Amino acid sequence: MGINYFAASLCALALGQAVSLSSFAQKTQPANTAAVRVNGQVFAVVPAASSAVLDRKTNELLVTLNAANGARVVVRLAEFRRRPERFVVTDPRSFSGVYYTAVTDGRAQYFDFRNCANPNRMIDVIGFDSVRHTVSGTFSGTACGSGSNRNRAIPVTSGTFNLHYSSR
């Protein structure tokens, strides 16, 4: 069952409290969690080994979801404005997007959306709390290989995160 934002706003106003719709959205995702599907398969995220980092000088947000075997999904948002906001990135020159590193037999294979013919990707920051240092959101995109993996496109879908972030 979804959140009735209108009813929640009315209740909060009746109680004389300011309300943030993003705070309601953030509560729908459990704290310190992350999930994503890579190439149609569940990616085994280890939340304790994952991170979110906000660069205060550049406003870049970097979310790294790590698996136990060394594989990782990285969400980079260069245009973050420290508030909930949806980013549909179509500019192939933008660094914002989804990156994927596969590990097979101890060898890393890198996949980057900028190697794709259609580099569209979506990052939706649904909650940002500068007091509690938490950020949550969803993401999707396609990452493509290079070199011998040049023609290999890896869909990264159903990405979610609700993590504490550190600042640098």
UniProtKB/TrEMBL annotation:
Entry keywords, A to Z: Signal
Keyword Signal part of the UniProt annotation: yes
Signal peptide: 1-25
Entry protein name: Uncharacterized protein
